[in-house]
Write a structure and sequence with these properties.
The protein is mainly α and 171 residues long. The protein has four helices and no strands. It starts with a helix and ends in a 12-residue tail after the last helix.
Length: 171
């Protein structure tokens, strides 16, 4: 099997940096929406309010744990920390992927697949809700890509005899 360690060492911080940047944008949008909903109670349904809150939670979760995993990877990518193992990455990625899948699908269902702000009346924060939906789907796509890479690295780690305790990169 080809040696992809160089690509993983370069790609991990880039991918996690992009995940964190998009999550910060999602955090800004959803926290603003939640604060408006809490202050003015002008959401068009409790589904909209609750699903926006869930996206806020998912973005906070993503920022915190992605930053932690990126720092740990940069500090000890191949030295043998349990938190930098393929299994640990896989568990974190899968849980977070579920969060973003559920959040993006839920807000999409609430908005009916997206709002046409020029024709929809009565939706107070139409553009912001569309942006929250779009960035949620972007996070879903990024985590899908990362989960596929971690799965491939898990197979490689298992084949070389390290199991899921093996590191994302070899020594």
């Amino acid at each position: 099997m080809p040696d992809y360690d160089r690509h993983i060492r370069r790609g991990h911080p880039i991918t996690f940096g992009l995940i964190i940047a998009i999550a910060i944008i999602e955090l800004a949008i959803t926290s603003w929406l939640v604060s408006r909903f809490n202050a003015h109670h002008n959401y068009f349904s409790t589904d909209e309010r609750d699903r926006t809150r869930f996206l806020l939670f998912a973005s906070i979760w993503t920022i915190f744990f992605s930053f932690l995993y990126m720092l740990l990877f940069l500090h000890s990518a191949s030295s043998g920390s349990v938190l930098t193992s393929v299994g640990s990455h896989g568990v974190f990625m899968f849980i977070t992927w579920i969060f973003w899948t559920a959040g993006a699908a839920a807000i999409t269902q609430t908005l009916g697949g997206g709002l046409n702000c020029g024709y929809v009346l009565g939706v107070t924060y139409c553009d912001q809700l569309n942006a929250a939906e779009a960035f949620a789907w972007i996070e879903f796509i990024l985590f899908t890509f990362a989960l596929v890479v971690v799965t491939i690295r898990g197979v490689a780690s298992t084949r070389r005899g390290d199991g899921f305790r093996g590191q994302m990169v070899s020594v």
